[in-house]
Amino acid sequence: MRAMIASPQAFRRGSFRLPPLREAVARLFEPRLVIRRSLSLDASPEAVWEALIDLPRWPERDRYIRWIRPLGEPPPSDGRWWVVGRRYREQVRRGPFLPVFKLTVVQVEEGRRVAWRARYLWVDATHAWEVEPSNGGAILSSEESFSGPRGIMAIARIVFRLFDVERMTDRQLEAMAGDVVASE
After folding, report:
1. Residues paired with residue 115 on neighbouring β-strands, in sequence order
2. What's this model's pTM, rounded to 2 decimal places?
């Protein structure tokens, strides 16, 4: 077996490279990360929507959420938790950590989509949930997008992988689905 040795000219021309390593490092330091997960449900989009917007129930059904509280104002008396501009504080479990996020509702498309935004440790995050009709049922999707300085995002990617954030999101969607089925 012969070892491949690249000449200095090959490096200058860019014809010699280690694609898997270079691409992995480049991906690690990308300033944006998106986690999107979806779940099909045998329930009406209306039932899924009602479970989704029932914010006070989230900590009861989602083991990763300790609490969610309105910030600077009493809980809405009209039951409308999702109003653009409304702010909340949320404490979550992430491994041994219990970070608290300040959330601001940034989007409400009645019956279809809600989103809020937060900033934590130099990272801007937007989390959106969407309900779509599908073959007599519904698809519930969660999309979290994160952006920040490259070094911070590299650390975030490692932490997200360690805590298996995609699996956490799957469990959150499954818990909401269980709530929908129980209410129908």
Report:
1. 107, 128
2. 0.78
Model confidence at 1, in pLDDT bands (50, 70, 90)? Answer: very low
CATH code of the domain containing 147:
3.30.530.20
Q: Report the number of distinct structural domains present in the chain.
A: 1
Give the count of beta carbons closer than 10 Å to the beta carbon of residue 119.
13
Asked whether residue 11 is assigned to any structural domain, the reply reads: no
pLDDT tens profile 22-31: 676 666 667 7
What's the rounded Cα separation, in Å, for the pair 118 and 89? 10
Tell the burial category of 140 from Cβ atoms under 10 Å away from its Cβ (0-12, 13-18, 19+).
Answer: buried
What the block records as the tokens of 61 is 């059904």
Domain ranges, residue 45: 33-183
Residue range 29-54, pLDDT digits in tens:
677 888 899 999 999 999 999 999 99
Does residue 131 sit within a domain?
Answer: yes
